[in-house]
Amino acid sequence: MAEHSENPIESMMEKISEKIHDHDSSSSSDSESEKPASPSSVKAKIYRLFGRERPVHKVLGGGAPADVFLWRNKKISASILGGATAIWILFELIEYHLLTLVCHSLIFSLAALFLWSNAHTFIKKTPPRIPEVHLPEEPFLQVASSLRVEFNWAFATLRDIVSGKDLKKFLIVIAALWVLSVVGSWCNFLTLFYISFVLLHTVPVLYEKYEDKIDPFAEKAMNEIKKQYAVFDVKVLSKIPKVPLKSKTT
User: Fold this and answer.
1) Are 65 and 73 in contact (CB under 8 A)?
2) Is residue 129 very low, low, confident or very high in pLDDT (cuts 50, 70, 90)?
3) Is there a contact between 169 and 161 (Cβ–Cβ < 8 Å)?
4) DSSP state of 49
5) Is residue 33, in this structure, part of any structural domain at all?
6) Which residues contact 120 (CB under 8 A, 6 or more apart)?
7) 0.85 cut: is pTM over it?
8) What is the pLDDT of residue 233?
9) Cα–Cα–Cα angle for 124, 127, 131, nearest 5°?
10) Are 206 and 235 in a shared domain?
11) Domain with 205 in it
């Protein structure tokens, strides 16, 4: 009977001690988690080009276009780049014209289908199955909607630039347009488009492969550009008088 009377008291004391032990262990773990990590465990923030925090694949939009630019499928990327090269050679080097190419292609296709449709009885072959083509409305609406968003963003950006609020952005846009005008005087639009297309298929994949070596050089270059801009700001931009914008009163 004595043993039976002591068992509930002992079990109660064991439960109280377990709760105290659990509380002490949780408080010690919380205090350890609140302690600052050692300097060796904290990794320094790595500089990435243009301040990106996402992988190159995500920066390019992800999906199939990013796979093509980064050569995830080498056959598709090579075929697209080869097709663009063939088009550039055809129109730029051979000096073939787009309208002439379209007309010649249509003439050949229509003539071949017409002759096949009328001569199948003589050559004892089945006539060609010409499918009915119906363009769906939804993809065109999606493209138009996305273009509308991009155009609105471009117009809003241009309005923000010409309003005189950000002189740095204004100078960057003027410099970029001037560089494009110089490059445009060297070559025509087709060559410029082809060069941009080739760069899109080479620069991202090379950067993704050697980004750990490129980013330190880019960091040094950006720091030097910031220093030169600070000097230019002190000597030139700060001396330009700024006219305050008048707020419209209703």
Assistant:
1) no
2) confident
3) yes
4) G
5) no
6) 126, 127, 128
7) no
8) 78
9) 165
10) yes
11) 51-94+189-240
